[in-house]
Amino acid sequence: MNSTRPPGNAWGSSKQPMPDLDDMLKKWLSLFNKKASDGGPKRMVLFALIGLLVIAVWSSVYTIPSDSVAVVQRFGKYLKEVQPGLHMKLPLGIDTAVIVPVKRQLKQEFGFKTAGANDPYQSAHSSDRKHETQMVTGDLNAALVEWVVQYRISDPSKFLFEVRNPSETLRYVSESVMREVVGDRTVDEVITIGRQEIESEALVKMQTLATKYTMGISIDQVQLKNINPPKPVQESFNEVNQAQQEKEKLINEARRD
Asked: What pTM does this model have?
């Protein structure tokens, strides 16, 4: 049977040379100009096809920053993780790529807010900021505790799929752990000598819970900031501290003499 395939067809024999890209572009442009001059439904269909082609190409190319990876989903199902660089995916929403900053150190602030922060979970709303710092110590005194949690995303797939809203969950975990650790110590330990021990214990407990809940998060550091008594008793508390320091001073002077 004789083939009816035209000799210039790209799907013909492998011996046929591949068409030049410039020639193809010129043919498409000439076809577009001809159809556009005709008007009518054909012109609308041509515009629609060209628009669809542009959207498909635009949505199939994406770039991953050097400090991130992309989690690719096909029809919403996890497909793979992609390393930094320029990549392509199936267009028109078939594949979606979520950029996850795995090499960037993230932080959450409790009791205060750094100006210009873009992460909505970096600090609480202004109405909740004061409440989350109010804690009761082991000797039934009150303290206002401000702290920072620094963390990284160690497992992108777990971070995205295992826990709903893991950043918000981490805030709840951090506040719960800090209240527990502070509640096991006296107010003097919390404000003065016990800060480093509190940071270390809180770090271990936060990481344990993050692993238990498969949040895909690695806690790097827990750092206490300002720790003060409540404002109504702050003046009295300072007077007590000054009296204790004066007492220690007199004792040391007496021992020296």
From this structure: 0.72
